[in-house]
Amino acid sequence: MLAEQDPATPIHNIDLPIAGKQASLDSASSHAADIVIEVRAQFEDMKAEMRLEFKSFKEEMRSLRSELCAMKTDLAVVKADMISCENKVTELGDRTTDIENFLSGNPIVGNLEQTVKELKMALNTCEQESLLNDVEVTGLPEIKGENLLGLIPLLSTKIGVPFDDREIISIVRSGPNLSQENSASPLRPRKIVVRFNRRITRDKCIQRARQLSRGLTSVELGLEGPPARLYFNERLTRINRQLFAKAREQCRHHQWRYCWTKGGRIYLRKEEGSSVVHVLVEEDIAKNFT
After folding, report:
1. At what angle do helices 199-211 and 152-159 cross, to 10 degrees?
2. Edge-to-edge, what's the strand order for the sheet holding 229-234?
3. Which positions are tagged coiled coil (predicted)?
């Protein structure tokens, strides 16, 4: 029977059997070899993938280089075109300056401008004279299928000037026929233009209509609907209408009391007893209100 060993006594020099050591080393060596093979395979795969990626990158860079070269060429063409355009703009600017200098210092041009201005005034005067037998009636309600000529005897009676339809050349609505179907609010009726065959009859009608103290309304003419005030005025050309509107605006702004038309001409007066101003052009308005 072996003697028991003291637990406190250390154990030294315990060797494993030689066969066990060799088996363990072989197993470790085989495992390491497998790892090396696997790592080498993975590395080869990575190299192949990197080659493909690098090849693709080179192709993309080559394509990008070609596109950049083409873009550079296009930019050069654009730059050349811009320089050409700038040169043309500069040339046009120089030509315009030369023309302006020529026109501003050339008395012929000034004479032509004055001639054109005088011709416009003469044409406007002739056009206004062709309207001296016309009366504009505003405010009369517009009714579909209306008989304007049938209002003539009643108008004659109400304003106190005897005339019949034989003294009327024409009586029509003036302006485009506006539809009220798609309008949210009632449209203003178009003006009525009455052309007389004698100017004296027209003048009497306007004078008597303006002298009526309470005016004339649509109800007095037997028209249905709410009463509408009627106004009788001379018919003016487009230029004179615009000039008259500007004159009235300036009179209101500067508190001038009178602005009227007579015989197609425009007149102003600051107050009763002051001198009358005849307005022919816009400069006449500016001259009196500055």
Report:
1. 60
2. 168-174, 191-196, 134-138, 229-234, 216-217
3. 40-67
Residue at token pair 């309008």: 183
Q: Which two tokens stand for residue 240?
A: 């004179």
Q: What is the pLDDT along the chain (290 residues), one digit of tens a residue?
A: 444 445 445 544 445 455 566 666 767 777 778 788 888 888 888 888 888 888 888 888 888 888 899 899 999 999 999 999 999 999 999 999 888 887 777 787 778 888 999 999 999 999 999 999 999 999 888 888 888 888 888 888 888 888 888 889 999 998 877 655 555 555 788 999 999 999 999 999 999 888 875 678 888 887 777 888 888 999 999 999 999 999 999 999 999 999 999 999 999 999 998 999 999 999 999 888 87
Which of 71, 94, 117 terminates a domain? The answer is 94
Beta-bridge mates of residue 174: 191
Answer positive or negative: Cα dihedral of 45, 50, 55, 60.
positive
The burial class, CB within 10 Å (0-12 / 13-18 / 19+), for 243 is buried
Provide the whole-model pTM. Answer: 0.61
Q: What is the span of the domain harbouring residue 90?
A: 39-94
Cβ atoms < 10 Å from Cβ of 2: 4
Token readout for 160 is 């106190």
φ/ψ of residue 169, rounded to 5: -80, -45
CA dihedral 117, 122, 123, 128 (to 10 degrees): 130
Chain centroid to CA 116: 31
Rounded distance between C-alpha atoms, residue 179 and residue 173, angstroms:
14
